[in-house]
Structures are given as structure tokens and as C-alpha cells.
Design a protein that fits this description.
- The complex is a heterodimer of chains A (about 120) and B (about 240).
- Chain A has helices at about 5-20, 25-50, 50-60, 65-105.
- Chain A is an all-alpha fold.
- Chain A has one domain.
- Chain B has helices at about 20-30, 50-55, 70-80, 100-110, 135-150, 150-155, 170-175, 185-195, 210-215, 220-230, and strands at about 10-15, 35-40, 60, 85-90, 115-120, 165-170, 200-205.
- Chain B has a single domain, classed as Spore Coat Polysaccharide Biosynthesis Protein SpsA, Chain A, CATH 3.90.550.10.
- Chain B has ten helices and seven strands.
- The chains are: A mainly alpha (about 120), B alpha/beta (about 240).
Chain lengths: ~120, ~240
């Protein structure tokens, strides 16, 4: 086994533990974890037998396994960017509603609302 | 003029961000016709709230800057909770709208039994001379924006991004703007289309002063607005 293989596997497995330990909400998170577990298995396999990715790449009409991994990475990155963007929009809306509730509570009325200015 | 006597059931919503130098005059001008004005201070640090309050407006202060869409939503939520409120108007704080136009739009709302009347800079009605006043580039971009928006096209609107709107209680109660920034204008029109509110356009004059032109949104912001409009449908409520 190469040192790079040891380092990569170590990084992926520690990420897995980090993710599994995070205590966020139920069902959807569970699927994310299952997906991540599959990813870890595939990643470890690809690290131990890098040439096998080339075989898969050939099935899909890609020359090298490294290229295939590059394409998958790009798609995954775009997906992550979009979901982060959506999540930020969602948080922004909650934040706006919170600020609105505060604003409505601290509304000030003019001293003589019915007199001419 | 008689304050309040004319329009006791009308609430004017003015979103304001760093408008301390003009907000007092804008509120005073509105108060020649309308008694109920709510200025939403969108987290300004320049005394906008104090100036508005002194001029006789209700002030709802956002603790942080959220954007014009959020400010309009806040103002409408405040106004619709007031006893007797039936008609609502949004009015920009930079002094580019005319109070007389609001009066005309309220009359129109009642006369034609509409739910909402929006101002347009590109009306066919002559008299105000408004169309010629819009700077050329801005005119092209605004027309393109109106044409690119599916709901705006469906409703046959000519100016989708006018800050002047008059609407009734039904619209105010149903209003739920989620676009905090400048994309709310398109969202507003999309809500009109979705809820089948009866809409009309009224020609208004925009007073393009140096101040309002400097404060107005840069045309490049149209890119953001377009992008938000496309994404809107995919955002869950």
C-alpha cells in the first residue's frame, strides 16, 4: 500500500466519523449518511485498486479513471453549491421573519398622529 | 387640506434606507393628503427613523438591513393589522413619486373594482408626459424586464418594476414576499397572477431628480432580479 492510499483512506474514514457523530435532524439526514457510507466504500475501493476506475470509465466511454473521477467531482461540486445556495436563501427568509417580528414589536407611533405636520 | 378626513382607511407604506435628508419632506408631502403613513426603516444608521417620526409617520425599525422587499412586507404587515385599514399603497422614500398619482390610483381602484393598481412609466394615456421623462437606457431595460417576466406578460403589464402600487385588504392579507432584495417587484406581480387578483395599470410620473437617480438601483442589478425570478419557483415556502 502506498502512503498516499493510507492518507486518503484515513481522511475519508475520519470524515465519515465526523458526519455520523453530527446530531442533526432525522430521516433526510439518515439517507445522507447511507449515501455517504456507500461513497466511502467506493472511495476506499478506488484508492486500493485505482485501475478499476479506468474499467468503469471505459464502460461509460471515458478514457481514464482519473478523468471520470474529475467529472463526478465537478457534478458533485455544482450540486453542493446549489444546495448551499438554496439553504442560504431559506435561512435568509427565516432571518428576515425574525427581524420583522422584532421590528413590529418595536414600532413607534407619531406623538400626534391626527394633527397636521 | 383636511388631514385624515379624506382617507382614514388608507395606509401608505414607505420602505426607507438611508433617506434621512429627504424622508421628512416625503412624509410631510404625503401627509397633505393621507393621515396614516408607516415608514419602515430598513436598518439605517443616519437618523431616517427620527426624521420620519418627527414628520408624523409611524416608524417600524428593522434591527438589521434586510432589503426593500422585506421592508415592504413588514410595512404591509404592520398596516394590515391596524383597525379600519382597507387600502394600502407602497411609495418610494426617495421622493420620486407624486402624491397626486396615489390619489388617482386609489380612485381607480375603487372605480374599476380592482384588487391592485400598479403605476407605469409607459402608459398610453397622454397628459402626464411621463414616457419621455424616463432615461433611454433605463427605459429599454425596464421594458425588457416587463417582457421577460411570464406573469407580467400574461397580465399585459408594461412596467414591472414601479415602486408605486395601491391595493386592497385582500392583497395585503395575501401578500407574502420572500425575496428580501430588489427582486420583490417581480414576485409581487407573480403573486398577483397566482392569486388571480384583478390588476390595473395607471400612468404615473416619476420625478427623476439627481438624488433619486443616485439612490436608484443600478441597471446591472437587473441580472440579479432575472436570476432570482428564475429560481423563485424552485424555492419552497
Amino acid at each position: 500500500m502506498n502512503w498516499i492510499q493510507v492518507l486518503l483512506i484515513g481522511a475519508i474514514v475520519s470524515l465519515l466519523f465526523y458526519l455520523l457523530r453530527s446530531r442533526s435532524s432525522a430521516k433526510t439526514k439518515a439517507w445522507v449518511k447511507v449515501g455517504y457510507l456507500l461513497f466511502v466504500i467506493a472511495a476506499v475501493y478506488a484508492i486500493l485498486r485505482p485501475d478499476d476506475t479506468t474499467v468503469v470509465a471505459h464502460w461509460l466511454g471515458v478514457d481514464r479513471g482519473a478523468d471520470l473521477i474529475g467529472y463526478v467531482l465537478i457534478v458533485a461540486f455544482i450540486f453542493t453549491t446549489m444546495s448551499t445556495y438554496m439553504r442560504f436563501k431559506d435561512l435568509e427568509l427565516k432571518y428576515a421573519r425574525l427581524a420583522r417580528a422584532v421590528a413590529l414589536q418595536s414600532a413607534q407611533q407619531p406623538e400626534h398622529p391626527n394633527e397636521s405636520a | 387640506m383636511g388631514i385624515d378626513a379624506h382617507y382614514p382607511d388608507v395606509w401608505i407604506v414607505v420602505p426607507a434606507y438611508h433617506e434621512a435628508t429627504v424622508i421628512g419632506d416625503v412624509v410631510a408631502d404625503l401627509r397633505t393628503e393621507f393621515g396614516n403613513i408607516v415608514v419602515v426603516d430598513d436598518g439605517s444608521r443616519d437618523g431616517t427613523a427620527t426624521a420620519a417620526l418627527r414628520a408624523g409617520a409611524h416608524v417600524v425599525p428593522h434591527p438589521v438591513n434586510l432589503g426593500q422587499g422585506a421592508a415592504i412586507q413588514t410595512g404591509v404587515e404592520y398596516a394590515r393589522a391596524q383597525p379600519g385599514a382597507q387600502v394600502f399603497a407602497t411609495f418610494d422614500a426617495d421622493g420620486q413619486h407624486r402624491v397626486a398619482d396615489v390619489v388617482a390610483m386609489i380612485d381607480r381602484l375603487r372605480r374599476d373594482d380592482l384588487n391592485i393598481v400598479v403605476g407605469t412609466r409607459f402608459g398610453h394615456v397622454s397628459g402626464a408626459g411621463a414616457p419621455a421623462r424616463v432615461p433611454a437606457l433605463k427605459r429599454i431595460v425596464l421594458k425588457a424586464a416587463a417582457w421577460l417576466s411570464p406573469s407580467s406578460r400574461k397580465l399585459g403589464l408594461t412596467d414591472a418594476h414601479n415602486g408605486l402600487r395601491v391595493f386592497d385588504k385582500r392583497v395585503a392579507d395575501g401578500l407574502n414576499l420572500t425575496m428580501n432584495g430588489m427582486s420583490h417587484a417581480g414576485e409581487f406581480i407573480a403573486l398577483v397572477a397566482e392569486n388571480h387578483w384583478r390588476i390595473g395599470e395607471e400612468t404615473v410620473e416619476i420625478l427623476y431628480t439627481d438624488y433619486s437617480l443616485a439612490k436608484g438601483q443600478p441597471l446591472l442589478n437587473g441580472v440579479n432580479i432575472l436570476f432570482d425570478g428564475l429560481l423563485r419557483g424552485r424555492l419552497s415556502r
